[in-house]
Amino acid sequence: MNAFILLSAKRMVASLACSLCLLVSSSASATTVLGIDIDKVVADAEFVFEGAVINSETRQDSNSGIISTYVTFQINDIIKGDYSGDSIELKFMGGVFNGQIVQVSGMRIPEMAEQGIYFVESMSRDLINPLIGWSQGHFIIHDDNGTRRISTAGNQPVIEVEAVSAIPRSIKKPQSVVEGNTDIAAGVMTETSPIMIERALTVEDFKSRIADLLIN
Amino acid sequence: MRIAALLLITLLSINSSHAYEVSENFWDTGQAIFHVGISGSSPTGGTWNDAFKRSMAAWSNVSSFEFVAVDNYLDPCIDRGEGLFGDGSTGIDFSASVCGSEFGENTLAVTLSAGNCQNPQCTNGFIITDADIVFNSAETWDVYSGSLRFDGTNEFERVALHELGHALGLNHSNANAAIMRAFMSDTDSLQSDDIAGIASIYGSEGAVTETTVANIYGVTLVAPDNATISGPNNSSTLSGTLSSKDNQLDGKALDLYQYTFENDSSIDIQLNSQTFDPFLYLVRVSATQASIPSSSFADDNSGSGNGARINLNIQAGTYWLGVTSDDNSAQGSYDVSIISSTSNPPSSFETFTSIYGADVLINPNSNIDGSLRSTDFKFNNRFLDLVQIEVTTTSAVKIDLSSTAFDTNLLLVDIVNNEVGSLVLENDDNGSGTNSRLETTLEPGTYWLGVTSYDPSESGNYDIAITLVLP
Hints:
The structure holds 2 protein chains of 2 kinds. Chain A is of the alpha+beta class. Chain A contains 3 helices and 12 strands; from the N terminus they run H-E-H-E-E-E-E-E-E-E-E-E-E-E-H. Chain A has one domain. In chain A, 19% of the residues lie in helices and 35% in strands. In chain A, a hairpin with a 6-residue loop joins strand 3 (67-80) and strand 4. Chain A is globular, with a radius of gyration of 19 Å. Residues 1-30 and 169-182 of chain A have low confidence and may be disordered. Chain B is mainly beta. In chain B, strands 22, 23, 25, 26, 28, 29 and 31 form a 7-stranded mixed β-sheet that branches. Mean pLDDT of chain B is 77; it is low at 1-17, 79-85 and 205-221. The chains are: A alpha+beta, B mainly beta. Chains A and B meet through helix 1, strand 1, strand 6 and strand 11 of A and strand 5, strand 6 and helix 3 of B. Strand 6 of chain A pairs antiparallel with strand 6 (107-117) of chain B, so a sheet runs across the interface.
């Protein structure tokens, strides 16, 4: 076994270990959600805000046995819509309660202390997932050495946001059916690896792109 | 890329070759009872119930897991006995809501799984006890096969197949052709990657799985279970994904698969991807896991579109099939098809007559089947077969010679300038029974293995197995 082979093998071990680290954060299963454009995400969301999760609790419906998770967000900035409070509670179907779980496949429930930008489909309707297009209306804020940057719900750094609804349907791919927990609205450009977060849009740049879409 | 092909000899690992992903959740009963009592029929494709049952049967037929269909309706959201959701009775329905909550604008169907957590936080998955599926009745549905329609009509059966896959504990697949792919496509039936995925959870006869070939520095060396190709006619497919987690070769992600062709074969290997420009290697591997340059092939665009294709006659042996891209950092799913035939075999292994009078077979295979015959060269009143192997890297090897027909005797000599050099090793019975075994470290060079018998004039079949001994 020569030194080159030994070096390659050790490098592969390191790579494998790194892969295992990444696997730990992989998500569970998914559901069937239509893929939509970022234009539609912005246009159809009733309320868009930057916020942070300050409370999360699960409750079980005494009739159906359905477990839901109630997430309270502190509202740091409102990008679209009107809301007077400092915080908002959103209900996500599914959760863990007394050692039992109800899992809505594909549901990615915001976690405690998570900061993000959330596109709420409706403030009044009781929805399985209150975020429009599920993960397509869910963006997470990461601290990159003091700079706050945006990634998707699946932790892919967002590097650009562009309107795509103007693209003629004839040259767009057919209506896609995506999965709720990781997928990204058309028009949201990403890096594939979370370690490329330094290339992601800052929170302010991202909000600026969203504001442009609102104007147009 | 040709230069990169040579670097392949230094890689001693084979990546996991599948694209499916499994959750940590599973049914410990190996069975799920679904109450299938959806009323009505699709516009053109028969009843919803028949379509759903076909989907259940499709999964049952390829795994040891069993879906049982009960012909009655059960509301997925009714009160369950003690008030707990998830009593093991699953319901299927079309509805405008899911247990009181609306689908929202873009949700077609939802699978509600319930179960008992493996730990209090449920971070280690759960034992599934229930998996109800609700289809959004506000959407337009039909049952049909083949290409997706572009009129906004959703195809029920493939969504059912997909949701049932989740109900079984499968996550997305990155394979191009898979019902568990995140994006719905023209694929309307279970593919090899789906079958491999479900087999990995519940087991399956005939399903594609992977076998650990070796473990080198903690890196698992595996081969698909359909990787031994014996002929006369074989076909094999696999799906995989190039990702940033893969080993890198010349700055490009690389997946390697090991195939063994037991006979000289005509092969046609095609590699296609919709997401990157694929590049294909086929490298013959010697007994000491070094490539044989004269039997190493590469192709970029000989297939359809930008697909890669290798179509040629090869000698029997062990091969590594390398999947990579033409571009740095390219990632995405791909599909490989292998068709082989032994009906028009290429020329057999090269042999030559040594200066000692014995014929020498040039055979780099790690496993060699042979036979001592009365027509063989005779040395010291014993029949003798000689096999030449090349060692390109200093290697610790274990060589086993076994036979049920005669008491074996194994020789190993080095060859310098076509003559026997200074190294001469011999063993009679270090293997099991009367079988022979040599364990030594070989420097780069040419060696002959001599197969003979302990007693005079014995003949019969024998096997040689050469194993690389890892530190």
